[in-house]
Design brief:
Layout lengths: L2 E5 L12 E4 L3 E2 L6 E5 L6 E5 L2 E6 L2 E8 L8 H18 L4 E10 L4 E2 L2 E2 H15 L10 E7 L4 E8 L4 E3 L24 E4 L4 E9 L2 E2 L2 E2 L5 H22 L11 E6 L5 H12 L4 E5 L9 E10 L1
Parallel strand pairs: 1-2, 8-11, 18-19
Antiparallel strand pairs: 1-4, 3-19, 5-6, 6-7, 7-12, 8-12, 9-10, 13-14, 14-15, 15-20, 16-17, 18-20
The chain binds 3-(2-carboxyethyl)benzoic acid.
Protein name: Chorismatase FkbO/Hyg5-like N-terminal domain-containing protein
InterPro entries: FkbO_Hyg5-like_N (IPR049368), RutC-like_sf (IPR035959)
Organism: Hydrogenophaga atypica
C-alpha cells in the first residue's frame, strides 16, 4: 500500500500503517458506510513523517497527507494553505521527486466568509502564494486536483507525486481555472482539468473535480440533473483531450472510476441516475460535500488506469 483515502464519517478503526486521508463526509446512496480508495504498488515502501506530512514512498512514487487544524486565534485558512503546500514542496525537493500529479484538498465551511473573503478564495490565495514561493508555475503545468468543503475538521491535503512531469490537459469548453477572471477571487485556482501520469508500466489519468461550468460561468443554477449532465459533458470532452495525448490507446468513459461530490444528500439518487445513463455500471461513489461555488450542486472527478 502506498496510501489511501477513506470516505465516510467513521474514523478508521485502527490507525493505518500508511498515509491515509480521511474524508469526513457521509457516503450517499450506498449501503456501504465507508469506502477506501487504495493506491497499491509492487515495491517495498519507505515511510516518513516530515513537518507534519505523513508520507510513503515506493520506487519513485510518493503519496502523502497533511492535516492542519484551524485553531481559535491561530493562522487563517490562507496562511494554513500556504504552509501545507510549502511543506509539501520542501518534501518533494528533499525526495528529489518534484512533480506533483494529483492533489485532494478538503476544508471546513468552504463557502463561508471570514474577514470579507470566501474561504475557498482564501485557500486559492494561499495555494497560489505557495506555488510562487516554491518557484512553481501557477499556470499551464499544474497538477490535477479537487477542492471541497466538509462539515468540519482540519484543512486536509493529500498528494501523489512522481519522477516525471504530469501531462496537463485542459477543457476547450472551459476557461482554464488558472485563468478565471478576478470576479471569482483575488487569485485563480491552481489546477489543470486533468493529468496523464506514468507510474511504471502504466498510464494513469486523473480527471480533476469537474462541475457545471461553461466558459468560466456556472450554468443550470438550482437544477442538479442538468448540472450533472453538464459536468459529464465536460468530463467527456476532457476524456477526448486525454485520448489525443494517450500512450495507452485512450481511456473509455465506462472504464473510469468516479466520485461525485453532492451538496444536498437528497440529490444523490438524481446524480446516480444521470451517471447510470452516462457511464453505465462504472464504479461510482457519492459523498456529501460542498462544491467551491455556492450555486454548484455537484462535482464529478474520475481516474483510470491502463497498462502500457
Ligand atoms: C471548477 O471547475 C470547479 O480549486 O483545486 C474543481 C477542481 C474545482 C479543483 C481546486 C476547484 C478545484 O472551478 C471547482
Amino acid at each position: 500500500m502506498l496510501g489511501a483515502g477513506l470516505l465516510g464519517l467513521q474514523p478508521p478503526a485502527v490507525a493505518a500503517g500508511w498515509p491515509l486521508q480521511h474524508l469526513r463526509a457521509p457516503v450517499l446512496g450506498s449501503n456501504q458506510p465507508a469506502w477506501h480508495e487504495a493506491w497499491q504498488v509492487a515495491e517495498a515502501p519507505l515511510d516518513g513523517h516530515t513537518e507534519g506530512i505523513r508520507w510513503r514512498r515506493a520506487g519513485d512514487l510518493l503519496f502523502g497527507v497533511i492535516e492542519l487544524a484551524e485553531t481559535p486565534g491561530g493562522a487563517d485558512l490562507r496562511t494554513l494553505s500556504t504552509q501545507a503546500y510549502a511543506r509539501i514542496f520542501r518534501l518533494l525537493e528533499a525526495q528529489a521527486l518534484p512533480h506533483l500529479w494529483r492533489l485532494w484538498n478538503y476544508m471546513a465551511d468552504i463557502n463561508g466568509t471570514a474577514a470579507g473573503l470566501e474561504r475557498y478564495r482564501q485557500f486559492n490565495l494561499g495555494r497560489a502564494e505557495a506555488f510562487e514561493q516554491g518557484a512553481r508555475s501557477v499556470v499551464g503545468r499544474v497538477p490535477a486536483a479537487c477542492a471541497l468543503g466538509v462539515a468540519g475538521g482540519p484543512l486536509s491535503v493529500a498528494f501523489l507525486a512522481g519522477p516525471t512531469a504530469a501531462e496537463p490537459l485542459e477543457n476547450p469548453r472551459q476557461v482554464s481555472a488558472y485563468h478565471y477572471p478576478a470576479q471569482y477571487g483575488p487569485r485563480s485556482p491552481t489546477f489543470s482539468r486533468a493529468a496523464l501520469v506514468y507510474p511504471p508500466g502504466q498510464e494513469l489519468l486523473f480527471i480533476s473535480g469537474t462541475a457545471s461550468i461553461v466558459g468560466h460561468e456556472s450554468v443550470h443554477p438550482g437544477d442538479v440533473v442538468a448540472q450533472t449532465r453538464e459536468s459529464m459533458d465536460n468530463v467527456a470532452v476532457v476524456l477526448e483531450q486525454a485520448r489525443r495525448h494517450s500512450r495507452s490507446g485512450g481511456h473509455a468513459l465506462s472504464e473510469l472510476s468516479y466520485r461525485a461530490y453532492v451538496r444536498h444528500a437528497a440529490d444523490a439518487p438524481l446524480v446516480q441516475a444521470v451517471m447510470a445513463e452516462r457511464v453505465g455500471a462504472a464504479p461510482l461513489v457519492c459523498v456529501l460535500a460542498d462544491v467551491c461555488r455556492a450555486e454548484l450542486l455537484v462535482e464529478i472527478e474520475a481516474h483510470g488506469l491502463r497498462p502500457l
